[in-house]
TrEMBL record:
Residues 21-89 form the HTH gntR-type domain. CDD domains: WHTH_GntR. GO terms for molecular function: DNA binding; DNA-binding transcription factor activity. This is UTRA domain-containing protein. Gene3D superfamilies: Chorismate lyase-like, Winged helix-like DNA-binding domain superfamily/Winged helix DNA-binding domain.
Length: 258
């Protein structure tokens, strides 16, 4: 690619900006990683902005940009007297917690109902892997595939598509999932040790739109969830919620008082 020509006197300033942007990204990534992996736990007080700037060899403006971004993303809280501290989670939404959908509906003061649409024991295919965010090895063997609708006052609340690993949860084959809600049954019988969530906004189409009684292209919230017991995966689920009726909320505060 040909190099852009610079005007006289421009080269030095341009290089300084590029270097600053690169350092900003690297510092932001390092700080975020330390917070996520627990190196900087909730309530941890970061050094002063000027000290961090000196430590990383950047301007105070660059370091302020990093800390401002961390604050806007909910990783830290900045206060004039107490400085910058790592935020403390206070309340979790469906992104972080594994909730019983029936209880979610009941909490809204509405009537809950579950309807099983399909149940099939088989190995997985490419479409299953795409919808459920699975690895090829996950569904190479025997699995139980389920799909059903959660209703709120007889209106579709959530479309659930789920696969259960029969090797890890063999009792699933004896359960009547027309009567038992799969997620609730798994929560009560298969205590997980690890969970992973992938959340995104999508525009619904095809059969999904029809089942949720939505127009094609309507906004939906998709939660893909995987739970494990030690190294063995138990279940992967795709929960599709009508977007206008749902939101995910996570609140944070710090251990430092006002």
């Amino acid at each position: 690619m040909p190099r852009r020509k610079t005007r006289p006197g421009e080269t030095r300033n341009t290089m300084a900006i590029e270097k600053s942007d690169t350092l900003h990204g690297r510092i932001l990534e390092e700080f975020s990683r330390k917070i996520v992996d627990g190196t900087w736990p909730p309530g941890f007080s970061l050094p002063k902005e000027t000290e961090l700037a000196d430590q990383y060899g950047v301007s105070r403006m660059t370091m302020n940009k990093v800390l401002t971004r961390l604050a806007s993303d909910g990783f830290v809280i900045r206060r004039k007297r107490s400085g910058t501290v790592v935020a403390q989670p206070r309340a979790e939404s469906a992104v972080l917690a594994i909730n019983n959908i029936g209880e979610e509906v009941a909490a809204l003061g509405r009537r809950y109902r579950w309807s099983l649409l399909s149940s099939e024991r088989r190995s997985g295919n490419a479409q299953d892997r795409r919808i459920l965010n699975l690895q090829e090895d996950d569904v190479a063997s025997d699995c139980l595939f389920l799909q059903g609708l959660h209703y709120s006052n007889d209106e579709p609340f959530c479309l659930e598509t789920r696969v259960i690993n029969v090797a890890t949860a063999p009792d699933a084959m004896t359960v009547d999932f027309e009567r038992e809600v799969p997620g609730a049954w798994l929560l009560s019988t298969m205590p997980w040790t690890r969970a992973r969530h992938h959340v995104r906004a999508i525009n619904v189409s095809g059969r999904d739109a029809m089942l949720l009684e939505l127009p094609v292209g309507a906004a939906c919230l998709e939660v893909q969830r995987r739970t494990q017991i030690e190294e063995n995966w138990v279940t992967c689920a795709r929960l599709l919620y009508p977007g206008e009726a749902h939101q995910l909320i996570a609140e944070f505060d710090s251990k430092v008082g006002h």
